[in-house]
Amino acid sequence: MSKPSDAPFTSEEFNKVYSSFLSHWFWSDIRIPKELKELIKTTNPKTSLELGTGIGLFSKFVAEQGIKAIGVDFSSVAIEKAKARVIQNEIKPNYIVGDVTNLNMISEKFDASFDIGCFHCLDKDGHQKYVEEIYRLSNPNSLHLIWALDTAPSNLKINPDYIETIFEKRFRLLKHKFSRRRIIGSHWYWLVRKD
User: Residue 41 — left, alpha, or beta (φ > 0 → left; ψ -120 to 50 → alpha)?
Assistant: First the structure.
């Protein structure tokens, strides 16, 4: 298992990881988390945005529920793999290469958004920009779901107090839940857009 200091950080590093046959599996998923399934079931969104989509498994699942889905990742290699994954699907997500701290290529609003493993890859400045972009792209009262490591690859500590502080101007933290997802201490966070 990679140490946090070995974790990819830049788009070039993630491109290298996603180009590897084996390396990207540490950063990828094979199952849909129940938290994402519950988000879709309880909010019944018409549109969704995924930040840090990787190879696109989660946005693919969302699109299969009849929801217009967009997945963004700054790894062009990951986005190519995501597009290849759904090439035969009748209903496809729209996968976009982009930086989650600057999503100027997107202008539509979303009923729900989620991030399963992207937030903890950003620094504090990136977190602030991320919050502003999610706020700009969210419909009133929309929910945003995050799964993040308690200790980011940069060694930044992420906990419920930190999430509340970073999001407080734009979102209210509804609840959080400790998780041992990927055997590492982490949390799920449910946030609602303030209006």
Answer: alpha
